[in-house]
Structure formats: structure tokens, C-alpha cells
Amino acid sequence: MFCGNYHGVVGYPKAKVDAVPIAVQRAHEKCFQNLHYIERHEEHTIAHAIQASYKKTKVYLWPAPTALGMRAGRTVENILLLAGFNNIKSKVIGSRTPHNTVKAVFKALNAVETLKDMQEKFGRVVEKHLLSRNISSVGLLVGNLKDQRTYSSQSLFEPVSERLITSGQFLKPPSRRSSSESSCYKKFAIAETHPIIQSSSLQHWFKNWQEQRKQKLTASTFSAAVGFWPIRRTQLWLEKIGAIEPFFGNLATCWSNIKEEVALERYKLITGNTVDFPEFQVYGKMNPEDSWLAASPDGLVDQFVYGLSLRGVLEIKCPFFGGDMSKAFPWRRIPLYCIPQAQGLMEIMDRDWMDFYVWTPKGSSLFRIYRDVEYWAALKLALSDFWWKHVQPAKEICGKYVITDPLRELKLVRPASRHELCGYIVCESKRIGDNSNLLMREINGKLTD
Hints:
This is Mediator of RNA polymerase II transcription subunit 26-like. By secondary structure, the chain is an alpha+beta fold.
């Protein structure tokens, strides 16, 4: 049983009696003794994305634009409607028992911060037009960022040295490690590459930001951080904590670096657009708490229609097809694993749409993708969990103790193969991919359907 006035006040009781009618009556009497006031943003939604847990139940809530409606299960929807919310998306993970779900939902709603709370927290004035433009990107993941420093490493290891561990020490396997542990560790290590791959002539013609990327989570790794490829997620974690050398390239990336300039000229010839080349972009310029996110776009596009500026970003792909150019036909649709990168680039660069251009020796295709605020809210929650619950705790431990086998010794902060929201993000990626517009596809200079 729930009670509410549809204007921000909602409550729930709990009564346990043998007879159902008596239990209902007692619950009705107690309901008004446990009321909560929930702040609503623009009288229809919440101000930012939020997550909360109660026992084995985890609830995610995302703000939604006007007229989208409620997208939630029956229990969550009833609570939100009685509180006066009309546009919210929700997802429950883990145990779905009504009691646990109710507790988790109220815990999440009580953790939502108001505009005044944000101003006091950051010491700045939060403009209302920013909230209305992008309610999920005000810079708060309250349920996650509040707890980003609550972990402790004191009970995990005994201190053996005050010096910092280096990546070289990680890469030297200890002699006592068993063969099974060694083989398990090797599958995450970067495959050995030839020195010629790292030569300057095979690097990107203007993006040389490897050093800046080491301490950031960049858009090109978003799908791996969520768990689109299970082994790659653990591999990325090992890279970010310095356990293995970061990925510097292979034959496919060399092919892309060589051909991307040709692809860019082809794109400009087809569209007539002027492309600007930005610097390495860090997300946290307006909100320092997000400075761990970054992007390195291929270009920025500004179009003017009836005097109005349309701001877009360009992403170029030059598929390698395993070196078999007989299969090198332009894509008919955007792969799912490219959607997190595309949405991340648009959010970090603050652009409304993306031209996703695919070049091959036999032809090319051009897609138009639009920015999705709800998708970014879910993606950022997953990325934040990866960074603050796995990467940063492991780095702090490595700064205090000598770690020779991170897969075993850092087991408590090692990420699972997939994030809890990975399935949801994959489904939403398919939706965005299906809704993207194929503007053009040409083979040998001829347009095709």
C-alpha cells in the first residue's frame, strides 16, 4: 500500500497481521506516519540520474523528457505516480521482491539533489536552462559519486614497501606463480606487436594523444568498459592501473591511420562540409568531477541552415576486414559497439548529431546519429562504476603495496566481465542504431539502396 498527494508527498506503511482486512486497515493508519517529501524537477521528473541499493535489489532512475511517460515496473510506477512524477525511466536489477523494491526506490528518491543542493555542493550557480537542455548532464551521479571514496584497502594487504609499484614490476611474473595462474594472466596481456607498427609513419596524421589518454577513460573504450567484450573489460582495467602496457595499435589501426586522411577528403567532397580539427577534449571543464572522461574526435562540423548553426561531430571508420579487401564493402548499418563511442563523443564535445562515415576501397556509407540524453545517463552510470569502484581503488592499493599478481591480489576490486546495465545498454544501442539515418551508400562511385 502507498499513499501520496500527486505533488511531491508520498509514503508507504508496513503492517503484519493474520487477518488481511485488519492488516490493510492498520497499514492505512500507518501510511500517514511515514511520509516523504520528494523534490520534483519542473514538476514532472527528477533533476538527475540516480541509483540506490537495498539488500540484493538495485534500482536505477533516469529523468525523461516531457510526454515520454513512465517506463517502469508496476511497483515503481505506482510510487512515482503518487509522488507526482510523470516522466521517468526505471530499471530494477537483482531481487524484485516488492518490499526490497519499495525500500530501494524511496532510498533513491530521498538521495535526489535539488538545484539549491547543487549550488551549495559546488559553490557555483547552476543555470536553470542547463537543466532544461540536458537534465542528465548537470554533472551529478549522486548515488555513485558520493561513495566514490568509501573503499578501504587497509584490511587487504600488509605493507611491504613504501615505494610506488611500476608497470615493469607488473609485467615480470613471479617465479612462484603456478602454470594455471600464468596462463590465466597471459590471456589478458596485449599481444606482442612488431616495432614497425609504432613507427611515426604509421601513426595518426594529427591525433597523437597517447600520453593524455593513459589517465582518462576515452570514448573509444566506452563499449569495453561496459562489457561488450568480457575479456576486454578486464584487460582495460589492467591497462588503466598500469598492470600491462596500453594498447598502441595493430594492423587494423595502422590501416585506419593511413587511410583516414583519404576518407576525410572523400567525406568533404560528398557533403561539401568544412571540418575543423579539435584538441584532445576533457569532459570535466564545467564539472571537475567528470574530468576522468575524455574524447579524441576525428573532426567537428558546423552547418548553417537558414542562418541557424547546426553543430555536429565527425567519426570516420576505415574497416580492415582482416586484410581481405575482397570483402571490403561499406557497412549497411552501424555496429552496436560503436554506439557508446558515438554518444560519448557527442556528449563530451557538446554536439547535437554525428556524421558517422565508413570508408572502404570499394565505396563508402554515411550515417547520421542524434544525441540521446537518456542513453548517456545509463552509459555514464556504468562507466562511473568501472572507474570509481574498480580502477581508482586498485590504483590506490598499487600506490601503497607491491602487487605482483593483480588478478589474484586485487580480486576484491577486479571488475566482473560485464556491468549490470550492459544488457540494457546493448538493447538501447540497437534501438539507436535502428533509428540512425543512412544518408548515403556508394560502391565504385554509384549510389546504392
